[in-house]
Amino acid sequence: MTKTILRALAGETLPTPPIWMMRQAGRYLPEYRATRAQAGDFLSLCYNPELAAEVTLQPIRRYGFDAAILFADILLVPQALGADLWFVTGEGPRLSTITGADDLAKLGLVADIDEVLAPIYETVKILSRELPKETTLIGFAGAPWTVATYMIAGRGTKDQGPAHALMREHPEVFDALMARITEATIEYLSRQIDAGAEVVKIFDSWAGSLKGEAFTKYALEPTKQIIAALKARHPNTPIIAFPREAGDGYIGFAKATGADCVALDNSVSAEWAAANVQVDGCVQGNLASSHMVTGGQALVDDTKRIVKAFSNGPHIFNLGHGITPDADPDNVQRMIDAVREG
Ligand code: 1CP
Question: Are 316 and 18 within 8 A, CB to CB?
Answer without folding.
Answer: yes
